[in-house]
Amino acid sequence: xxxxDRRLRSRIITNTKNFVRLLGHFRIPIxxxxxxxxxxxxxxPQEIKKYLSxxxxxxxxxxxxLCKEKKIRDCLRRLKKKQVIVAGCxxxxxxxxxxxxxxxxxxxxxxAEELLISSSRNVDSAIARMKxxxxxxxxxxxxxxxxxxxxxxxxxxxxxxxxxxxxxxxPDSAV
Length: 175
Hints:
Distance between the termini: 17 Å
Largest sheet: 3 strands, parallel
CATH topology: Rossmann fold
Radius of gyration: 16 Å
CATH class: Alpha Beta
Strand order of the largest sheet: 3-4-5
Structural class: alpha/beta
Strand content: 15-25%
Number of strands: 5
Helix content: 40-55%
CATH superfamily: Isochorismatase-like
């Protein structure tokens, strides 16, 4: 984040905070990865960290591809999920290599467009490669409405629970 200008940094923090809140609302597991050395590369901003639930897990990683870390692979397996939503930085390094790693392990990979950052100005080839390998790019707004529709319907029919509402202060679009 320190490599990004202040205005963009603020927007990324706001969008990521809302992303974490959205996933938390639907009890979607969150795995946070931080590149070592964290002291030099940067830790998770407090404005985002405070919205993580107790069930989220944070890992430090030595590889750009998070799948090369045994602890992270084991955590992913324990979750027993087939779909992964990816957000983060560097689009053309860690995000690219992690998406390729997740795809090679058989995960369906969805990349939240507004939640990618990079110190490089041109990440077009990295995005093209992720798409060519099978990653699906979506907007925060698309993700928001897919979750609202599918999760509410699933909870009503499968468990007979009343429909719950998304918090009013949680925006449906990125800023």
